[in-house]
Automatic annotation (TrEMBL):
Pfam families, per the entry: DUF3054 (PF11255)
Taxonomy, superkingdom: Bacteria
Protein name per its UniProtKB record: DUF3054 family protein
Transmembrane regions: 7-25, 37-55, 64-86, 92-114
Organism field: Nocardia caishijiensis
Keyword check for Membrane: yes
Entry keywords, A to Z: Membrane, Transmembrane, Transmembrane helix
Lineage of producing organism: Bacteria, Bacillati, Actinomycetota, Actinomycetes, Mycobacteriales
Amino acid sequence: MKRFAPAVVDALLVIIFSALGLISHDESVLAGLPRTAWPFVVGLLVGWGITWVIARGKRFEPVALWPSGIVIWASTLVGGMVLRAVSGQGTAVSFMIVAATVLALFLLGWRAAVRVLR
């Protein structure tokens, strides 16, 4: 289980990010969460896949800020925005800035905290 803990933490944080967005717009979390979260969850999975490929032959460190954290964050953000656009969901510039900031805080923040605590 310890091996999968970073992926679970990332997934929970992406879901929390999506839920917070719905709450901030007074939308139903239960009704809107699947529609809102799926693009970012797919982007997260792509990021995890990319980091795994990058690490092939080397020690895979999903808790590392670089390259794992940065690649996972960027993939989650860009993949999520592209999939939102393709599926007809909003991608306003203000939303992209907020999403980039909050996802960085969430996906990079816990990794930075682990690094400091180690």
